[in-house]
Design a protein that fits this description.
There is one protein chain. The protein has 13 helices and 4 strands. The protein has helices spanning 2-38, 51-57, 61-74, 86-106, 111-129, 146-154, 166-172, 194-205, 212-240, 248-276, 290-305, 314-324, 327-335, and strands spanning 134-139, 160-164, 183-186, 189-192. The longest helix is centred in the first third of the chain and has 37 residues, at 2-38. 20% of the residues are buried. Residues 26-61 are annotated as: Disordered.
Amino acid sequence: MLDMIIVSVIEVMVFTVVDKVANKKRKSKKGKKHAKKNGQDVAENQPESSSVEQSEDLISNEEVVVEVVEEVNESEEDDGLAFIDQEEETVLALLEGLYVSAATLSHPSDQVGDEAVSSATRQSKKKKQAMPSYKFTYFHGRGIGEVARQLFALSDTPFEDVRLRGEEWMNIKDQSPWGHVPWLEVDGKVLNQSWAIARYLANQFGFAGKTPFESAMVDALGDQYKDYWNEIKPFFMPMYRQNMEGMKDEFEKKKKEVAEPARDKFYAILTKEYKKNGSTGHLVGSSLTWIDLVVVDHMGVLDHYVPGFLDGFEEMRELQKRVNAHPKLAEWLKKRPHTPQ
């Protein structure tokens, strides 16, 4: 029903414009005929075009459009028919497009509709072909680079995943863009810094928040995560080496003096924001954002090295469960290379 209404409206628009042009054409022809008969440019005493004549001129969209276009071509040979100004030429150029749109809506299986659909398909293919090429370079582990990989997976975006091991990194470090990882190449253009990359990809793929305020809130929590990272960082090396000889005492010491205060401070903020956000299952807004990914992946690292370290933060456990249950993310978690951190 709606498509028929749209077709009717477009047809009225076409008829109105063509009628205006056709009337101007007839007046021009009459003027030429009168000038030849009387030797001057004076109109004969005959009535204006009747409604019957107008209806004959507007038998169908196709006939009217063809007639007017033919007259435009003839006007190059006969100055007496040069009645169409620049504005009307522009309108005529659009008439065919209007009619194709109407025909496509009312008869999508017709030839005109098929041609319009084919055109739309070609445009869609061009957009797909124009998709940027992505190359992401980081260590073999997850760390601060994993969020970028997860954003590619969630958006079904192909990318080259370059994973460097220790010796490989040392061999190319001096030639790297800024002397550290990660970096992202987009059609050959280089973007450095993990959070800049995360924000860029999240904005490209729709995981940065639905409103400007949500995006700012996601960024704020991302910056808070960096503060937390710097505070807990001295704990990481003893954590990784806790099973090595002589490291157990250092591990326990750093856990108590460094890790627990940093954890309590940061996870109190996360819990507060999670509760304030209602029952959405996310830290910000009603949909998945890159800060959800960052927090949940880091929780997985802590769970691996320090089981029970996050017990008591039930809201964060709920967040972890919901995020990891996302179908596309769950698929990525299964197929990615297994690394503890």
